Amino acid sequence: TAKGDNLFAKIDNLRDKGVLTKHGAAVLHNIRNLGNAAAHEVKPHSTAQLMLAMEVVEHLLMDVYILPAKAELEFGKGKADE
């Protein structure tokens, strides 16, 4: 679970814990800024920007939750460390 009072702090906390890479955190901050601009400034974004944001979120979910669970089912827990 990410710790922090806002999304900025939570993203940085996940980076500091090693859940996210430095580059991954930077990408999420870009998406956070995109969302803030849309929500607070009513700034529209291009279809390409929105599609990229969705790809990043999908990749993050796959990397953090789905693939580790599939690997554990297939190989067992902790097999990669042996």
Explain what you see.
This protein has 82 residues and is mainly α. The protein has one domain (7-77). The chain has helices at residues 7-16, 22-40, 47-75. The longest helix is centred in the C-terminal third of the chain and has 29 residues, at 47-75. The protein is globular.
Characteristics of this structure?
82 residues; mainly alpha
Give the SSE map:
Elements: H1 7-16, H2 22-40, H3 47-75
Helix pairs in contact: 1-2
Structural class: mainly alpha
Tally of helical runs: 3
Categorize the overall geometry. globular
**Overall tally of structural domains:** 1
Could you estimate the helical fraction of the residues in percent?
Answer: over 70%
Q: What's the number of extended β-strand segments?
A: 0
Query: What can be said about the biggest beta sheet?
Result: none
Mean of pLDDT = 90
Q: What is the succession of H and E elements?
A: HHH
Question: What distance lies between the first and last C-alpha atoms, to the nearest angstrom?
Answer: 27 Å
Return residue spans where pLDDT drops below 50 for at least 5 consecutive residues: none
Q: Strand share of the residues?
A: under 5%
Radius of gyration, CA atoms, in whole angstroms: 16 Å
